[in-house]
């Protein structure tokens, strides 16, 4: 149950509108784990200024971990920051590692500044396969990944069929956009959902 203060904060941040946008961006046939992630995430509480780097974003999230967990949603627990993976003698670092109790699986989170790039998928796939081999416990499901970008790039994500590989992409906002921008995003998400349904009908 949310506190009165937290409920008011959710209303101020237009959680309903953001949930509607996220729901329209998820195809009806996509797996259950997609529904646990929001899109976008509202990270104004981090207090980031223009010109911040990915390391600044990560440090701010860890400083405000409780609020970040509330923004992620229910069921998430923090596991590790800068998870080290040695592959072919090279060091690789995953920004944030969480565990989701309901899904019984690790959740890898990679933080990116700027628009989503197709290359991010391969990077996340490598992380997930390493976690599956070296970190997954006997009673757990395969790890899944979340790539957080300032701009998602919907067409690339749809073409790459990210969800089939257990990878989700979401935008994050460091400040709430004006009402007109939020309404336009809702309109765009509705149009994209209708186009997806029409393409499936014609297949």
Q: Any overview of this molecule?
A:
The chain is α/β, with parallel strands linked by helices and 203 residues long. It has one domain (40-191): Trna Endonuclease, Chain: A, domain 1 (3-Layer(aba) Sandwich), CATH 3.40.1350.10. It is 42% helix and 22% strand. A 6-stranded mixed β-sheet has the order 1-6-5-4-3-2, sandwiched between helices. Helix 5 (119-134) links the parallel strand 4 (105-111) and strand 5 (144-149). Helix 2 packs parallel to helix 7. The protein starts with a helix and ends with a helix. The model is unreliable at 6-13 (pLDDT under 50).
Instruction: Work out the radius of gyration.
Output: 17 Å
List SSEs in N-to-C order: HHEHHEEEHEHEH
* Class from helix and strand fractions: alpha/beta
Number of domains: 1
Mean pLDDT: 80
Strand order across the biggest sheet?
1-6-5-4-3-2
Name the helicity range: 40-55%
Taken from the alpha-carbon principal axes, the silhouette is globular
End-to-end CA span: 43 Å
CATH architecture: 3-Layer(aba) Sandwich
Unreliable sequence segments: 6-13
Per CATH, what is the topology? Trna Endonuclease, Chain: A, domain 1
Assign the CATH class.
Answer: Alpha Beta
